[in-house]
Design a protein that fits this description.
392 residues, Alpha-Beta Plaits, single chain, transmembrane, Nucleotide_cyclase, elongated
């Protein structure tokens, strides 16, 4: 049974490692670290089995190097997943220092108990430092599960260190492969590795799904929501507890002239800049989307039409003040705004969008660079709308 476990663990871990490397091809960076770490651990278990003819000491040193690499990579995968870029060199230095100590213990002292103690304790520290660094970053339920699974892996390895140090009978390096401790280590390592690998793989799969969904819901030019993403976000907002919801629809004035006179590359930069200005002005919790072409829509929870009119005014002023000459525009850029508040009798948000659209086109009809509310309130331009000067 001992031999069955000895061969089973690296095979199963190898399959998980390969799965992670496949997921990494979808652009999930942390998945490559998980895959490399799991494969390193699998090789660490298989080395003593595949080359039994070699002396014990070189085999032990090779296995230790692979286990250190595995736990270093597990921790790195965790840090990358949660967006932490710290501790790389500190953890690497610890692994190298511990490996020097292991080399002395194995080659000079020939003390198996001390070797296993230093080895397991180093693995715990390599992983625990990463776990501690991300303890406040797990917000999604799946991320919280991953965090606590990694805590379990640390605890399982630490418990094994304590048990072996205080309860296990002394054994030599030659006796280790067939010892009860080796068998227990394989069982506990199998449980810990499988739980960790399955949880991490579930997290990576969720990340891939969310990334593809975000790509489908996002506008590639501005990074804002597209119409599909807006529909999803609006449905979630309207299903919540927001009392008043207002809507701002706005469109870049004379955008066709910008494309015709300065080229589509400049036009794209104008659209990006308008998106940045609008996002900076909108209050927290708002939903902003590019609805197509040069048209944008913003949904403001807990805002009346009057408050939305004030937000649109600040947005209009920010667009006017922006230095558009940086993009090569000799004139300026303005936008026309339509405001509406969602009514209780509306069957769809698109009824409100339709009213805001009518108000926006009234703003364009009466001179552009204006804000018109579907309720009849109008904010005139503070000055005649800026003219786009064509290049000669």
């Amino acid at each position: 049974m001992n031999e069955d476990f000895a061969f089973l663990l690296p095979v199963v871990m190898g399959l998980f490692g390969a799965a992670f490397l496949i997921v990494a091809r979808f652009g999930i960076r942390s998945s490559a670290y998980w895959g490399a770490g799991i494969l390193s651990a699998a090789l660490g278990f298989v080395v003593p089995l595949s080359i039994p003819a070699l002396p014990v000491k070189p085999v032990a040193m090779t296995a230790e190097a692979l286990f250190f690499a595995a736990f270093f990579l597990y921790g790195q995968a965790l840090l990358v997943h949660f967006g932490r870029s710290t501790l790389f060199w500190q953890r690497l230095s610890l692994a190298l220092l511990a490996y020097v100590v292991i080399a002395y213990v194995v080659i000079v002292a020939e003390n198996l108990q001390l070797e296993l103690f230093v080895s397991d304790l180093t693995c715990v520290i390599l992983l625990a430092t990463a776990v501690a660094a991300v303890r406040h970053r797990a917000r999604r339920p799946i991320d919280k599960l991953l965090f606590w699974v990694m805590v379990f892996v640390c605890a399982e390895n630490l418990l094994r260190v304590i048990v072996f140090l205080f309860l296990a009978s002394p054994i030599t390096m030659d006796q280790f492969a067939g010892s009860d401790y080796s068998f227990v280590m394989q069982i506990t390592a199998t449980v810990g590795a499988m739980v960790m690998a399955m949880t991490a793989l579930a997290v990576m799969t969720v990340n891939v799904v969310e990334r593809h969904r975000n790509d489908a819901d996002s506008d590639s030019l501005t990074g804002l929501l597209n119409r599909r993403g807006f529909d999803r976000a609006a449905a979630g907002l309207l299903a919540g507890e927001a009392q008043d919801v207002a809507l701002i629809l706005f469109d870049i004035d004379h955008f066709k002239r910008i494309n015709d006179d300065y080229g589509h590359a400049v036009g794209d930069e104008v659209i990006r800049s308008i998106a940045e200005v609008a996002a900076a002005v909108l209050p927290g919790g708002s939903i902003l989307a590019r609805f197509g072409g040069e048209e944008f829509v913003a949904l403001l929870p807990n805002h009346t039409a009057a408050r939305a009119l004030d937000v649109a005014g600040r947005m209009q002023a920010a667009i006017r003040k922006k230095n558009w000459r940086n993009l090569g525009l000799e004139g300026g850029v303005t936008a026309s705004f339509g405001i509406d508040a969602l009514g209780r009798g509306d069957h769809s948000i698109y009824e409100s969008i339709g009213r805001a659209d009518g108000a926006m086109y009234e703003a364009k009809r009466t001179g552009r660079d204006r804000i018109v509310s579907a309720g009849g309130t109008t904010s005139p331009a503070a000055h005649p709308h800026l003219r786009i000067i064509r290049k000669q």
